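Weekly structure sync, notes
Attendees: PL (lead), two postdocs, one rotation student
Agenda item 3: pending single-chain targets
PL asked that the sequence for the first pending target be pasted directly into the notes so everyone works from the same version. It is reproduced below exactly as submitted, 147 residues in total.
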Amino acid sequence: MGKDVESQIKEVVDHYQKYDADWIMKPGERKKVVEYLLYGYSATVICDAITGMFLSEFHSGKNRDNAVWTGFHYVFREHNFDKFRKLAADAGQAARLKSERQARKEDENRKRNMERKDMASRHLAGFRYVNEARKSMDKGSGGGMVE
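Predicted structure, written out during the meeting:
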């Protein structure tokens, strides 16, 4: 088996262990990963399916029996694989949209703050101008006293 396949298997194992640190891949599970890699799925796609499984409320225990079905073999059930990938993609899209909204809000706040600073700066400059004008008037008229 080529090193590329081995590195992809390691990527899948490392990703699953983010959710279940004690898990160790069994030979049958390794074979399933290799099958999917040979089908043309990348390690990234398999990792997306794993993420989707852990995002699934049903598989995470929010079901009638409160049973948790997040075993590695559940990822590779034919009816689950694409469903899990879609869950991960939807969650990723929602996160991107939330991130984009947050970035827009931060940009708006930054612009608003810059406008406020600019307005305050212009106000301060006007205040300085008036004070300088008063000082020069006071000097020119002898203290402002008219005889």
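Discussion points:
- The radius of gyration is 32 Å.
- DSSP finds five helices and no strands in the chain.
Action: rotation student to compare against the earlier draft before next sync.
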